[in-house]
Structure formats: C-alpha cells, structure tokens
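Q: Hi! First time doing this. I have a protein sequence and I read that you can turn it into a structure. Is that right? Here it is:
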Amino acid sequence: MHASQGRSAGLGLALASAFAFGGSGVAAKPLIEAGLDPLHVVWLRVAGAALVMLPVAWRHRDLVRRKPALLVGFGLLAVAGVQAFYFASISRIPVGVALLVEYLAPALVLGWVRFVQRRQVTRAAALGVVLAVGGLACVVQVWSGLSFDFIGLLLALAAACCQVGYFVLSDQGSDESEPADPLGVIAYGLLIGALVLTVIARPWGMDWSLLGGTADMNGSEVAAWLLLGWIVLIATVVAYVTGVVSVRRLSPQVAGVVACLEAVIATVLAWVLLGEHLAAPQIVGGAVVLLGAFIAQSATPKAAVPEPVAGSAPAGSAERETELSAARTAP
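A: Yes, that's right. Below is the predicted 3D structure, encoded as structure tokens:
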C-alpha cells in the first residue's frame, strides 16, 4: 500500500517537474523578444534560483571540500552551458525545435561511450541513436534545405553537448559509500553557474527597466516580472526539487519516460501560448526523436552487470545517474 502510494506520488511529482521544465522556454522567449538579451535572461534565472537554494548549499557545504571538480563541472556545463545555449537558441528558432534538438544528448552520450571510452554499445542503444537522428532530420525539415536558422540549430546542439558533459559528470563518485547528494550538487551548480554567467553576461549593462514593463505573448501583454518569477521559482527551483524527489520513488525506466514528456509539454505550450505551430512531419519527427532518446536512455545495464555494454551512461550507474538526470538543466 505504502509502495503504491509512494509510486503514485512519484509520478505526480515527475509530471510536475516535466511541466515546470517545459514551461521555461515559453516564459523566456517573450522576455527576449521584449528586448532582454538571452544571456541576461539566463543570468536572472540562475542567479535567482541560486539565492533561493542558498540554504541547501549551506546544508551541504562539505561538498566544496569533497567534490570540488564535480561542482565546478556541473556549474559550467549543466547550468551555465545548457541554459545559455538553450536560451540563445530559442531567440532564433521555435522553442519546441530547440528542445527536441537538445534531446539528442542521450545519443551523443552513446558516441562518448563508444568512441572515447571505446566500449561496445547495445543494438537497442544504436537503434535509439538512428531513430533520434532520423527524427531530428524531420524536425528541421532537411528536404527543404535547412530552412531553419542554422546558427539557432548549432546553439541548440551546443546545449545538447553540454548535457552530455552533465551525464558524464553525474557518474563521478556514484559508487562511493557517501555519494554526493543531488540537491547539494544542484545548489552549488547554480551558485557556480551564476558566478560564471555574471562574468559572461555582465548584468550591470542590462536594461532593468524592461522588468517593470510587459512582454507580448502571442498578442497578450504579460507582466515581465511575472514571467521572470515563473522562470526562477517554477521552471528552475520547483522543477529541480520535484525532479530529484520523484526519481527516488520511481525506477530509472519510468523516470526516463516521464522526462521525455518535457519536450512534448514545451512544444504544446509554445503552440498554445506563443503560436509556434509545427508542421505534421515535424510532429512525427519529434515523436521519433523522443522514442530514440528513450531507447538510448533505457538501454543501460543494471548495476550488477560487469560487461561493457552501455546505454546513456557508464555501466553500474543507472540508478544514481537517473537521480541526477531527473534534475537536469534541461530547460
């Protein structure tokens, strides 16, 4: 009874996390179109979330001594890199397309495993890569000569590459007797990301008056501070926390399925709230991308399997990697 209730609660939290993450681009794009630089929006998001997560960082302050490299890598790639490239990409291409491109990350992780770590991958994982790449070709409509903004696509791909770095880092120390607590890693990742983005974005040059105005959301005027509040509190803090809590109540496979809903939610929200309509081939391609990403993610062996067969993360780390990946910086 308690196990069933815990699983139901986990599914509810996972859905809430996917919805929260999926709404980040929809809230950010009107701010960018209102005149805010994408890097400034990223800085506001990360810095605001870092302030909220300060008590968590203080509680896990021992991580600074135990895992400095992990925290720095997480802050640079999973926070600063993913967010900056993703927000820059949605300033040039539709939100749904940018997020679907980012879902190439599991396939790219397999490339890391196969060609950098020189380990064999399963046929199912290879099939996932083929499906993801083929689906992406439909999303960007390669038959029309890449009608999408090429720079926007490169920025979205860069966000996917940063997610690869995150997946690789997430396995660091997962088999230790005292592994790093995911919430602590997230808190310090936000703090480090905020520091890095402060240097890059230089927020002192931002037009702060824009935050007191409104932004256009498909013909409707919405207060800029309300959109920013959603991005910081809901799409970042709530999304991360619910993601971590939910994955501890679910299996890695179930968590992976629910995580894939983030792209669906983002695409639907962008369609309804921003008027970003996708063509039928793009919708089909998006579904294939998500299917390929899920197959690639789920083709990971159990911890007890010593063979070098890999899916989306190094062997022996499926459970712990998923704990962290549920709180990814997927937008």
